[in-house]
Design a protein that fits this description.
Order of helices and strands: HEEEHEHEHEHEHEHEHEHH
Strand content: 5-15%
Number of helices: 10
Radius of gyration: 19 Å
Structural class: alpha/beta
Strand order of the largest sheet: 1-4-5-6-7-8-9-10
Largest sheet: 8 strands, parallel
CATH class: Alpha Beta
CATH topology: TIM Barrel
């Protein structure tokens, strides 16, 4: 079904000449994508306003890549309109559990969508955050953790809430455009070695035109959080706009989508640095769809990731890690 609000991005993506799919049999777990309906309330300006079961299933099927499972990433979708404020976020998990059930029917294809879910909870509630986490766990057997910001002072109330993640065996995802926060995230990870801390989107905004000073500062920030044994890096999100800033490959700046070779030449140093800092066993490629769809198709994106892995000479075991194994371990999924 054609959705008018998605027409501009679908038209732009349709201008690309589809690439030959590389290694089409390689099993992939996509550990980071969103689902939403932003019609009438698209304050962030995402070009794909509607992205639900049918839309992501079509992107995966049309890509030709062997995506066997996915993980839903917190995005404020379908919060409850009533009830206690702290529990409104549980509506997101309830919604995504329904998408998982739709996918499990097989009607939308063989990929198992949303076998992992991470949503939100206000950990500043301290011990009272337990009620929220338990509600998420009750809402779905696929609930695996939360993504939130953290206070700069890591105050006691937040730390009490964070400690509950260890109690319930939940993970912690985090992202901000500002990579300068990563040393503080490392501090948090070191305080709670039993919690898997997942760094999203290469740690912050990735500007392909960054100067040497900014690049060096980013590398130092990556090193600080990579030094924590319980941290994991999501390799992706470099292909997205951040606020009003748009990279040169964004649909508003490029007449047609770039080829994966052009992305490889532009972004390889960032991906290589992060992958080598964390090691393949603590890295996972992610789509960040439909946010990154403003800049790249699902097929081209996974071709890019496969080219990165091959350029770096990853072994079969290392490729398994970055394409599925690390995601399965971090989110407690059944590995393909």
């Amino acid at each position: 079904m054609s959705i008018p609000e998605n027409s501009d991005i679908e038209t732009w993506i349709g201008k690309e000449t589809p690439e030959e799919v590389l290694e089409p049999d390689l099993p992939i777990i996509d550990p980071h994508h969103h689902l939403w309906d932003l019609r009438g309330r698209n304050g962030m300006g995402f070009r794909q306003e509607v992205y639900l079961c049918e839309e992501i299933s079509r992107d995966i099927t049309d890509s030709g890549h062997n995506v066997v499972q996915t993980v839903f990433a917190q995005c404020g979708a379908f919060y409850r309109a009533d009830g206690p404020e702290a529990l409104k976020c549980v509506g997101e998990t309830e919604f995504v559990h329904g998408i998982a059930a739709m996918s499990r029917s097989g009607i939308y294809g063989p990929t198992r969508l949303c076998t992992g879910i991470f949503s939100s909870a206000d950990l500043r509630l301290g011990d009272a955050a337990a009620e929220v986490l338990e509600a998420h766990l009750h809402a779905s057997e696929y609930f695996r953790g939360v993504r939130t910001a953290f206070p700069s002072d890591l105050n006691n109330d937040f730390l009490k809430g964070f400690k509950l993640l260890e109690k319930y065996g939940l993970s912690y995802d985090n992202w901000s455009p500002d990579f300068a926060r990563l040393p503080r995230l490392a501090d948090l990870a070191n305080r709670f070695p039993g919690v898997t801390v997942i760094v999203n989107h290469l740690g912050g905004r990735i500007d392909p035109d960054a100067d040497k000073s900014e690049l060096s500062a980013w590398q130092a920030a990556i090193d600080s959080v990579a030094a924590c044994s319980n941290t994991v890096m999501k390799l992706g999100g470099a292909q997205m706009r951040v606020g009003d800033w748009e990279p040169p490959y964004h649909m508003h700046r490029a007449a047609e989508p770039w080829h994966s070779d052009a992305f490889l030449a532009t972004l390889m140093p960032r991906y290589q640095y992060a992958l080598e800092a964390f090691g393949p066993e603590r890295c996972m490629f992610e789509s960040n769809f439909p946010v990154d769809k403003d800049c790249i198709s699902y097929r081209t994106l996974w071709n890019l990731f496969k080219k990165i892995a091959n350029e770096l000479g990853l072994s079969p075991a290392e490729k398994t890690a970055v394409f599925s194994g690390t995601a399965a371990r971090a989110y407690r999924l059944t590995a393909p």
